[in-house]
Specification:
- With about 130 residues, this protein is mainly beta.
- It has a single domain, classed as Hypothetical upf0131 protein ytfp.
- Helices cover about 10% and strands about 35% of the residues.
- About 25% of the residues are buried.
Length: about 130
């Protein structure tokens, strides 16, 4: 059976609205991207732009089945809303993995949305 690594940084994380899609998949821990990107709040979920940025995106890594990945693609509107690409991520011990990340195509215009400079979506949930 094929398994894929997927890096999630928003509503798919443990305890959030879409985390149930990953309940029966293998959680590999907390990670951050090696490269720096831009994260924005789209209201009830975040988005990431790959072109430039100043933040390592913080999230969770899962090893998922192809069937789960197909469900995630449907949730994320892949490839019409979010696209996805393989990126390098690392955990606090310095272990490096390659995983799929969902991102917003650069031609999408989200200038009206609030940036999340830390790259940690959970921090913006507590903004006043």
């Amino acid at each position: 059976m094929t398994h894929l690594n997927v890096f999630v940084y928003g509503s798919l994380k443990k305890g959030y609205s879409n985390s149930n899609l990953l309940n029966d998949q293998e959680y590999l821990g907390e990670f951050k991207t090696l490269d720096k990107y831009s994260m924005v709040s789209l209201g009830t979920f975040p988005g990431v732009f790959l072109n430039g940025g100043s933040s390592q995106i913080q999230g969770e890594l899962y090893e998922v089945s192809q069937a789960c990945m197909d469900s995630l693609d449907q949730l994320e509107g892949y490839p019409n809303f979010y696209d996805r690409v393989l990126v390098q991520i690392e955990n606090s011990q310095g272990d490096i993995y390659v995983a799929w990340i969902y991102y917003l195509p650069s031609e999408m215009d989200y200038l009206d949305f609030k940036p999340i400079p830390s790259g940690n979506w959970e921090e913006q949930l507590y903004w006043s």
